[in-house]
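Reply to dn_fold:

You asked what the input looked like. This is it:
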Amino acid sequence: MRKNILLLCFLLLVAASFGCGNTKVKVYENTEDFQFTHEEGNITAVVTNIDLENNIIEFMNCQSGERINLGYHGGVGVFNTYGKDIGIGGLVCGDVVDVVYYADTERLVSITIDTDTVIVDNVNKLTIDKQKLQATCNGKSYGMYGYVTVYDEDKALDIMEINTEDKVRLYLYNNKLVSVVIKEGHGYVSLYNHDSYIGGMVEIGYDVIVPVTSEMLVAVKEGNYTLRITKNGYSNTKNITVIKGDETRVDISTIAVPTGTVTINVTPADAKVYINGNLDEDHVYYNLYGSYSLRVEAEGYNTFRGSFKISEPVKTYDIKLKKDSDSDNTTEDTESTDDTTEDSEGTTDESSTTEDKKGSDSSTDDKKTDNVITVKTPEGVGVYLDGEYVGTAPVSFPKTVGTHTITLYKTGYLIKSYTIQANDDGKDDEYNFSALTSVLDTIQ
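and this is what came back:
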């Protein structure tokens, strides 16, 4: 008890000593207001990333290719070329802008769409030559920076991932390509149950006209199309929808080429009948609808050369040869004479076949070389050259001068395509592409 009373008295004395004393406050006179100034920086740059979650925007300097991250806040003005504030939502990756920022704090002050950058919109069939640093479209060529950015929405792409089927927007800084934005991308079309058309042609829209092969995967701009497939004068159509980045598999079984039987009655009876150059001893020919060459010959008679068309399940043609002394051969069709044509010059007439016309339209002047193109990686993926299967990587195939699309395909993975430029430089070309992305990795 005594100890507690002594402690209480001590605390009271301490409190009294603090409470009774005079508190002195030091006053500073002749003070001046201090104003802090920032050092401003400004660049013309490509918008390369907009991260509003962390309030950071990344830019690439158009002149140097260097990248810089700058802090963003709601007070930063974002203006179009007319000085109107469009907000951060008015910017997309790939835009070229004039940036003002505080160099000491790396904070944005303002962003304005650059008025001197030339924009070329709605460009189709863009081709890139990385070796020459040259971009070509609509018959015009542009130089390009070695650090060109490519964006599909907010996704950055390698410049080789631009497909000639894509519709793009070009940004030209100092008349050189610095940025590409994909406005409409591409998907892929494959055919199955299409054996009856192999060797024919398939047309998708107005741009894609390619041969029908057993394994094919064709890049097509996204959208709705009428697919037209043709062989030997017979054609049919299907409506399809191509979705960006996806594979559209088209079942051709419902429009397969039908078959028919043609009987060739000849006079004299021992005349030999050749159809598409092959001897037909029975004079009965069974095949797909379409046009076929016909040659009938017999000793002592003028040779008949022409063509006929299978266009219905059963049909008969009568061919009567004339002896050498007679002037002309005659052709009698028991049902119709319109489908059999004779070539007076003694050559097969196949001018009416659709795939011949398409073949001439789709021919190119590409020069074949003695070199090869090799796709080394990713190993194990199927490799398609301009839509035609060439093998599993690593794989090599003949090098043909020109612009080509290499498509990589593997079940369970996203399809990827690259556009390459093959030059007549006497060298073999080798490519190592990035690994494909598993479909499972895209599921969130």
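The radius of gyration is 37 Å.
Hope that clears it up.
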